[in-house]
Design a protein that fits this description.
Length: 148
């Protein structure tokens, strides 16, 4: 994890933090609880206590089968961002080899409904569907895609 200087958007205080670019959930399954509890990619400003995001996105990966889940700040929640992001970050032709998703989150906030995306399972009852609806991509809730 690289050490980066991060500035508070509220008061301008600078802090140095180790920033996670990606988390391999196959090699470190204990990180799943950190992700669900909202304990990644943010710090609180030591001066004004504002929440500071380290990055706009964090990559979660699985090795077998190959799967990438991009957690992206809700500040960028719009369909055009998703399209532009994937076209700029992915090598041509990689889509056929790696299953990729994007989920918009509030870094620093718990998000239990992410477990359905991480586990790649369908919710089992209406409460599960309602909880899953808390994660939005534009106007529609994230629904785990169907395997073909």
């Amino acid at each position: 994890m690289p050490l980066k200087e991060i500035g508070c958007h509220n008061c301008g205080t600078k802090i140095k933090k180790r920033v996670r670019e990606a988390i391999n959930l196959s090699e470190n399954p204990r990180s799943i609880s950190e992700v669900l509890e909202g304990k990644i990619n943010f710090s609180n400003c030591p001066k004004c206590k504002a929440k500071i995001e380290h990055k706009t996105h964090v990559l979660l990966t699985y090795m077998d089968p190959p799967r990438w889940i991009w957690l992206v700040s809700k500040k960028h929640q719009n369909p055009q961002y998703k399209e532009e992001f994937f076209s700029s970050i992915l090598p041509p032709g990689s889509v056929q080899f790696i299953d990729q998703e994007m989920v918009f989150v509030d870094f620093g906030e718990p998000c239990e409904c992410l477990k359905y995306v991480l586990d790649d399972k369908k919710p089992q009852n209406s409460d599960d569907w309602l909880n899953l609806g808390k994660i939005h991509t534009g106007k529609e809730a994230i629904i785990p895609r169907q395997r073909v």
